[in-house]
Amino acid sequence: MSLEPRAPAAVEPASICLDVLLSLGRHGLTQRPRRADLDARALEMALTFQHKGKPGNTTLSCWHAGPAEQDTEIALRAYLGMGLPSIRWMHMAPAGDALAPLHEALRAPVDADARLVLCGMHAEQGEGSGLLPIALAERLGWRWVPGVVAIEAIEPISSGVAQAVVLQALPRGQRRRIAVRLPAILGVEAAAPAPRQSAFGPARRGQLLQLDSGAEPPTDPAGATWPFMPATPRPKRLKIVTSANARERFKAAAAKAESGSGRVLEQVSATEGATAILDFLDAEGVVSRAAVTNARQGNGR
Amino acid sequence: MSDVHSTSQHQQHAVRRRRDPRLEGIARNRRHPEHLAVLAALGQGGEGQASWMGPNGRMRRDPHLVGVMGPNGRRRIDRSGALVGAAGPQQGRTATQRDQRRDVVVADPAGVIAVVPDLASGRLSEHDRDVFGLARRLADERADERADERADERADDRADIDGSSLAVTALLLLPSPSATLESALHDALAEAGADRVIVLPVAPGYSPEDRLAACLAADRALSPRHWLFPDATLEGGDLGRRLAVRLGERPACGLWRVEPDDASDSGWSCLCRSGSGRQDLARPLPRVVVAAAQCAEPVTATRHEAREWPLSRTSCDHPEAPLPMQDLGAVAVDPAAIALAEAPFILAGGNGVGDWDGFHHAARVLGASEGASRVAVDEGHMPRERQVGATGTFVSARVYLAVGISGAIQHLQGIQRCEKVIAINSDGGCDMVKRADLSVIGDGDAILAELASLVEPSLVEQRDSRQQLGVGPEASSPTDPTESPDMSSLLSDRIKESRHVA
């Protein structure tokens, strides 16, 4: 996507620490374990940023908190196949809450000028409510930025304080530029660049560093009492005509697509037609008439 | 005839009417000169009586006496009653358009359900209305039970509906310089189901922390029973989750169904769709709810008060501390790179386009994303991923400008969700013209060229040269030396505004 480029950052912080939180994914049809799509995009964003900056400037560490189950290693190795040397895997009980170990891991001070955590907007398995990064940011006292599609720059603003300039995805394909003070957690959106392919060799060679999360983390109280069930298809909304009499209900049921409400210009010159269209576009706010007329005047001078 | 109505001489036959075979014979004989008079006397119609109770207990109607003369001189019977007594179809239409909504006033609410609508582009969206519908369900459906409980507690038999119902309160977070409630928005809120409206000023631009602070202030002042947010990634969804985390609640995210449940504390249970969309989670309804689209039916039968409730932010009015997040503004996006499904403005070409270079030029000048009909794609004028319609992309543009597309049903399906459609076509009778809000009948190529030349002046060249040079919006570089720099920056700002209407 071609965007207005931003002037490159004058100075980069001496050292940047990027953390990526990775969760497990599952293919929608085959149910095979794989990397979670949004987390893979977050990792892709981190890898791209690391590659773009000065060599050795950025340290990248990836975290996963979860129980050791049959599919976990397969899914985590898919991330390693993107070119990671290692992933730190904090073991947890199956019903454990990932918030506590991740908080412990990120709370430890790091010798870096700028610190940034990346993750997907929501997980692909389990509740997937997207609450974890917000709760994590709240506990750590860091900033939380949702809907990120690109990191443009990380720049120091004063001694010991850095800011990141990121692009946020708005509806209708629009983008917004935001500067956020670090440390911060960025939630990566599905509109972010697609992750690179996972290669088999690096996936085999990469290391899963198994960490003991120390004290047993508190279990998620909800998991035991709130049942998960396969998603039932949501009923389609019917066109309900709440009318007292049968005539209107019949008319609504038998109605064809509305027609005849529009304005039709027949036997007009091309200029008249174009002017009418331009007025319409202006009224809808798609093309600004004022800008056009101003430009004409400016051009005519 | 006179003895028909005379009372019986015997007391035990007082309720029984004496039969008169002669009169019954006249009533059956339509040709009898006294037929109508006898019918009227027997209470069986005649003499202008349109309906009467028949002998078997069924209502009988005289079809000659109901209905009105239609416009073509034939008698029309309209059982809805809309046309009865009407002179023509005009009055019938006004009768059907009459507002039949019931006005509801909650004078003394027992509690508050707070709804924070997104107000994308300053209006209530469909999603917002659904969330208001959900709030109305939560407020109204169990109100009768609560009223009974209260009546039991007070041990008097008068159940006070007002005192037991919850007020659905819309919390509007409007940018601070002009944080006032417009009358159009007020009416929309009243129709959506808001009993009360609170307007809180927040910092302009993207400021989630400030919006959160406003919600927290409202929470302290009102302590709502429920907080409802529409689950949109950046706006309501994010704010709701932040608020829940700050309040120490576990929100119901992606909620799509709510059912009464006596076992849970809140009296409701809900179903939430998981992040992957493959699982549902059943749980009691919590205090903070982030609801998916179509979580409930929007309000249609009632109109509410939407009375403005004065509430001021005291503790957290614009802290002087440096902002943790700074909105650097919208970024110009190349319209050709926006996915067709979510493009806001599409220029689509079909079989009637002859000059494809002119078409591309017009799209570039207008800042529109390009689309095409199946015919144009099949002939190789446009790539397949630009095809609009049943076999291509279903688009949701705000404005869809169709040039030389006659409107096959598959194509019309594809543009069903577009708000406004403009058609340029040489055939005035085609289906696209019927669908369009504005149609211009004429040569598509000529009109497009004219449209492009109307918009085109230096402005657009300037923007393009800027993009090629890679100069950011901060550093304005006028390409035209005769133009003053302030003018050009002003223009570029304007055109940026015009491009980035969400």
Question: What can you see in these coordinates?
Answer:
The complex is a heterodimer of chains A (301) and B (502). Chain A has helices at residues 37-52, 72-80, 99-107, 132-140, 200-205, 221-225, 246-254, 270-283, 289-300, and strands spanning 16-21, 24-26, 33-35, 58-66, 86-91, 114-120, 143-158, 161-169, 175-181, 184-188, 207-212, 228-230, 263-265. By secondary structure, chain A is of the alpha/beta class. Chain A has two domains: 16-225, 3-Layer(aba) Sandwich (Rossmann fold); 233-301, no CATH class. In chain A, β4 (58-66), α2 and β5 (86-91) form a beta-alpha-beta unit. In chain A, α3 (99-107) packs across α4 (132-140). The longest helix of chain A has 16 residues, at 37-52. Chain B has 502 residues and is an alpha/beta fold. Chain B has four domains: 2-96, no CATH class; 105-308, HUPs (Rossmann fold); 335-455, TPP-binding domain (Rossmann fold), CATH 3.40.50.1220; 459-499. Chain B is built from 16 helices and 21 strands. In chain B, a hairpin with a 5-residue loop joins β11 (268-273) and β12. The longest helix of chain B is centred in the N-terminal third of the chain and has 15 residues, at 126-140. Classes of the chains: A alpha/beta (301), B alpha/beta (502). Chains A and B meet through α4, β7, β8, β9 and β12 of A and α9, β10, β12, β16 and β20 of B. β12 (228-230) of chain A pairs antiparallel with β12 (279-284) of chain B, so a sheet runs across the interface.
